[in-house]
Structures are given as C-alpha cells and as structure tokens.
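Memo to structure team: turn this sequence into structure tokens by end of day. - J.P.
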Amino acid sequence: MQKLITLFVLFIVSLFTHTGMAQAQTASDWAATDNSRLRLISQVEAVGTTPQITLGLHFQINDHWKIYWRSPGDAGFPPSVEVAGSNNVDRAEIKWPLPERFSILGFETLGYTDETVLPLVVTLKNPGEATLIKAQVSYLACAEVCIPYDAELSITLPAGDASPSGEAHLINRYQVQVPTAGPAMGLSLQDVQFKADGEKSDAGTLMITALSNAPFVEPDIFVEGSEMLAFGAPEVSVSTDGALALMEIHVEGLTFLKKPFTDIPLTLTLSDSSRSAEFTGAEATIATADMLALADKLPQDRTSQGPSILVMLGLALLGGVILNLMPCVLPVLSIKLLGVVSHGGGHTRTVRLNFLASSAGIISSFIALAVVLITLKSAGVAIGWGIQFQHPWFLVAMAMVVTLFACNLWGFFEVHLPEAVAEIGAQETHVHGLGGHFMTGVFATLLATPCSAPFLGTAVGFALARGTSEILMIFAALGVGLALPYLLVAAYPKFATKMPKPGRWMVILRRVLGFALAGTAAWLVSILAVQVSDIAAIFIGIIMVTVAAMLYIHKRLHRRYGKLDWIAVAILAVFAFSVPDTVGNGPNTETVKLDGLWQTFDEREIHTLVKDNRVIFVDVTAKWCITCQVNKALVLSKGEVYTRLNGPDVTPMQADWTKPSEVISRYLASFGRYGIPFNAVYGPGAPNGIALPELLSQDIVIEAMDKAAQITQ
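Reply from structure team:
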C-alpha cells in the first residue's frame, strides 16, 4: 500500500512540474513621491486577439492626501495620461470610478484617497501583436497644500492568450465602480428641473428626482456642466418607502453663461452606496408647481427609512426556518437524519446537550460568515450570500471533507477529533463529544447556504446595505432559524430517544447515507469543472476516489491506522488544493456556455431592448445553486413560461454567478438582493424591472411578463 501511495504522489508531482507556468511581468515599477506612489498594472498577461486591453493606474496615497476625479469641483485638476512613444498603441482612455465628496468651508471637491485604480482602456493598432505601453502621467496631490507630479511608466505585453494577471482582481474591483450608462443598477432619473434665485441673478437651484428599485440608502449626485458653473452638494430628501429621492443642488455662475441654463447639457452621475449610473446630455426644464410642492412635502414625510430592525429580524428568523425546506439543504439531509436516528434509546440529557451543541455550531457559523462579509465590505469587495461556493479552495475543502465523511459512514475508518475539540464542554456537562456535534453544525451550515430562500434574501439585503451591528444581528437570527429543528429536538429530546436503538438497521442506513454524501462530493467536483476546467475536476475526482480506495484497502487488510496513513491523506489533500491553480486549461473569464434559449446578461442592452417594446427575462443563476436548478427544471423549461421565453417579443438573459463577478453582485444589490436565485422581468410596462420571488411558479412568471409587456402612454 505504501508503494501505491508513493507512485501516486510521484505521478502528481511530475504532472504539476510539467503544467506549471510562470506568470508574465504585468506591473511597472513604482513611481514614488513623498505623498503618493503610482504604478501601471495590466489586467492580462498577454495582448490576446481583441482590439482593446485594460490596464490600470494604481495609486497609493498617504493619509490626509487626495487626488481628483475627472470633474474635480471647485479646485484641482484630474490625472491625465499620454502614451507617446508607445509601440502598437492607438490611444488610451481613463475610466473614472465613483469618487468621494469633500466639503470644506463651502468648497466642494471630488476625488480619491488612500488607494485607487483608474482603469485605462488601451486601443491597439494591430491586435494580437506584442505591445509596449509608455505612459506619461500628470496628477495633482493635495492636503493642506497641493503638489503637481509627473511620472513615466511602462509595461511590455507579449503576444499570446489574454489570461488574467495577478493584478486582474485589483483592476476589476475598481472597474465595476465606474458608473454605468443609465438607467442602470436599479437607478433612474424621473425629472430634472431648474428654479432661478429670485434675489441673485447669478444663482439658482437644480432640482432632480430619482427612482430606485431598492430603497435609497445614501443617495448622492455629481453634476457636470459648463466650466463656468459651480455646483454645491445636494440637499437630499427621500420618500417614506425609500423609492424616490429629491436632490436640490445650489448652482452659481449663471451670469457667465452665453445661453440659458436650461439649454446647457448636463452629465449627471447618480449614486447610492455602491450603486451608480451616469446620465449624459440631460437638460433641465423650468421648475413646475408640482416639483416645488414635492420639495416642501418630502422632508416632512421623511419619518421612516424602510422597515425596522425588529421586522427584519423576524424575517431573518423565518427565512432561516424556511431554508431547512429548500432544495439547497439536500446535501446535508444525511447529516440531519443521522443526527436524529443515532440517538435512539439514548439518555434525554445527552440528546439535549448534543443537539444544543449542533445548534451552537450553526449559529456560530452564521456569525463567522457575517464577520467575513463585514471585513470584505470594509475592503470594498463586492459581497453576497453563498459567495464561498464561488471559490475553488472552498469547493475542494468541502469535497475532501464530504468524501471522508462518506468513508466514515461506510465503515472504512473511525475518525476522532482532537481531544481538545471533541471534549469541549465535557468537564462542565459530563457529556463526551460535544465538540464533535458542534463541528457537525458548522459543516451542515457551510453546505446548506449556497442559495437563498423566501424572506432570507430580503433580510440579507437589508443587513448588507447597512452597518456592522445590523449584519451581525440579522445573521445571528438566520442561524437561529436554520438551527430551529435542532433546538426543537433539544427542547423535546424524546423525539430522538424514542427512535429504535442502533443495530443492524443502523449499519445499512449509514451505508445508504454514505452514498448520498458521495453524491454531494460529486456535485461539488462538477462545480469545479465549470469554475476551473474539466481536467482540473477530473484530477480532483481521482484524488477523492484514491483517498476512498486507500482507506477501503486498509480496512480490508485489517491494518491499523497510524500517523503515516493520515500523512498520506494530508499530502493528497495538498495536491487537491493545488490543482485549480496548476491544471486550469484557460483564462478565468466570465463567459458561460448557454443553450439556444439564453443570451449573455448585459444590463446596458436591457434598456435598449425595453425602448423597442421587448420583454426581457433575467435569470441570475449558478451551478452551485440547487434552488436555481429546481426553478429551471420545474418552471422555466416547461409549460407556458417556456413557450413565452421562446417567443419573438421576449429576450431571455442569463447571468452566471458560478464564478465571482462584481458586475453581477452590483446588479443584485441594485434590487436590494445579495443572493440567488434571482429573476427579474423588464419591459415597457416595467422599465426598472420587476423582481420575482426566490421560488418561481408558472403563474408568478406569466403575471410579471404580462405586466412588463404593457405599453404605457
């Protein structure tokens, strides 16, 4: 057996030796100053075949210093770039992420602090050829004083596949913060009007009303117009349901204009927390009586900012309970069922403490997940429910654990947690193995949270759009809801003790449940085939089968398990974790294989299609979302819904969230959602979209499509 392990390890090592690839140089040296530093980074390792590539101007700025946005406000000037001296470069254009607003002594400026990346879209003269990019960058850094800087940066990219570089995620993080042409992200403008100041001919008030699919949280708007004009920070009023915001912006400099303000085209960048949309060519009209009345009314009506935290806690608790009944819990039914039947004939006190330990594991896991999401949100990373399933390392870890769990149920080995873990609480309770039950709750939670449930999505959306305390409270309530079946057994332990005592039937049941867990492991590996590559999934599957075969052979040979056996399993696990990075067969792009029905999701295209009076059905899905697959199998691919989706006036779009995508994360956030399944219907009767519930039915989808198809006059 040891020879077999040695040969397998040598085979894996040789495979990794031949498939490993060195990464190209994709970042210039830093150009450092006393107050900032700057470098040029590339999103790809080679130029590929497309006419454009994306680079990034990566700024790191000292505390209390800032650089400026494209329209800096009352002072400053924005960074600029020239590409003279480059080879195979036609032009380069900076894309501007949403800025911060700085209000000091009545002066308004817009810019960036700490760290930022300005995406730089480079158009090539000859796509596919090696390219030298030389960038001459000028920028102004300001604190109490302002200092202009110049930097010369360069990167050479070879010809070849445009696989993602090590800097791709950093650039993507800021690329998705570039405002989308509106209406977008659930944001739209309702009206733009202007009221002249009756006392000062040089001033007036720009009055803008905006609509949002999800309740407004922190609405703001950045106005660009003539260089002669100065725009103040908006005074914002929000309707009680959070769906409408009125923004009043003080305008000065009117006497410098050669034509009326209402003839000046404006660029309006509407933002709300992480969402943003840009509207170009907007022109104001003279303020109407209705607009003036709204301005007087809204501040008085602004008594509520959506539902209270108590209501959301109730929805979170209910959502956690319903999650127990969703298809997503199929992978952990084996664990739950075994947890009940294994206590047949047991002592009441032991059963109660074991199920309380499992409940504690579930609730602690939800709190830990909340802490992770809080950390990611603070770092500016797009967050969502079930995002752990987007990462290959998590899937490999779960596949390995599930495989070992299945082998344990089949009787291939007996596993003992480290004593310090297994005996948690033993001294106080005199019940052994509480740590093991706690870890069972943790394991069950991790596998049961890949997709959303009714009420859960609403509660999670509320929490993630707010602060740390709300996130912790909502996720704790979700944990209590998911743990409720365990808590009920703890409250009424006779439900478990009345089960038949373990015997021959228990051995058979364990084997059956072991095959159910083996199916879960196969499902996890199949997700890796989509996220990484088919070959990577095959290798990981071979490793899992080898682990199971090794444990079975040891059992058949009646050999005692020593440290060497588990060292071999650990080595195989290390190789499994290495596979996604070394045996991938292509770039980690966001393209997906769609059948003839679906088009790839494009939010900008949605609004174009709506103008043509078409109905658009958006399906946000993922391979790891079991509820998504159930919706497709039972609703979207059957009956009248399938017929309508194939109709000439309907465009079905699919957004695949199997891999991380900040574009999709922001789209979900525009509806106040952070998990899937998610579906929305657009049309002339619903230009901003109608969000559908997590569980679909024929009637729900048809009703939404009929409403969206109505042409408003």
